[in-house]
C-alpha cells in the first residue's frame, strides 16, 4: 500500500473518531483489526470488540478530538503523531476528574491489509492525562491494572 493511501485511511479514522462516529470508523478497519492502547490497558481484536472499545472510549472522553501533525511511512506501516484534545468525564476510570480539557501528545502506529487498517497502537502518557484531568495517576492505574501492575 502506498503512503498516500495509508495516510488517507489514518486521516479518515482520525476524523471519524473526532466526530465520535463509530460506524464510519469501523468501515476503515480490517475485519481482524487489532487495537492496542497500552496506557489504558486496552486491547481489542476484530470489529465487534473494537466497536465496544470505541463506544466505551467515547463515554470516558465524550469530546475526544485528535489532530495529526506529522507522519512517517514504511512498507505497510504508518506512524502518526499529534495531539488529542479530550476531557475525562465522570469517574469512569475509577476516580473523579475535574472536567478540565487536556491537550495530550499522542503517537499512533498503523499497519494495513487488504486496503484497510489492520492494526492501531495508540500511545500516550497516562500520567499526563491524569495530571491534566485532576485525577490520581495511582488510582487510575489501580483501577485499570490492579495492585500488581500499579506498583
Automatic annotation (TrEMBL):
Ranges for domain SnoaL-like: 14-119
Gene3D superfamilies: 3.10.450.50
Protein name: SnoaL-like protein
UniProt cross-references to PANTHER family, sorted A to Z: ESTER CYCLASE, POLYKETIDE CYCLASE SNOAL-LIKE DOMAIN
GO terms, biological process: polyketide metabolic process
Amino acid at each position: 500500500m502506498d503512503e498516500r493511501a495509508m495516510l488517507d485511511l489514518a486521516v479518515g479514522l482520525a476524523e471519524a473518531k473526532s466526530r465520535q462516529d463509530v460506524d464510519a470508523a469501523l468501515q476503515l478497519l480490517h475485519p481482524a483489526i487489532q487495537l492496542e492502547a497500552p496506557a489504558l490497558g486496552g486491547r481489542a481484536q476484530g470489529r465487534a470488540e473494537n466497536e465496544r472499545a470505541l463506544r466505551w472510549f467515547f463515554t470516558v472522553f465524550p469530546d475526544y478530538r485528535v489532530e495529526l501533525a506529522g507522519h512517517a511511512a514504511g512498507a505497510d506501516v504508518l506512524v502518526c503523531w499529534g495531539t488529542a484534545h479530550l476531557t475525562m468525564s465522570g469517574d469512569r476510570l475509577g476516580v473523579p476528574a475535574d472536567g478540565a480539557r487536556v491537550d495530550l501528545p499522542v503517537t499512533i502506529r498503523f499497519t494495513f491489509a487488504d486496503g484497510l487498517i489492520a492494526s492501531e497502537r495508540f500511545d500516550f502518557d497516562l500520567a499526563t492525562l491524569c495530571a491534566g484531568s485532576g485525577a490520581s495517576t495511582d488510582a487510575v492505574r489501580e483501577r485499570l491494572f490492579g495492585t500488581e501492575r500499579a506498583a
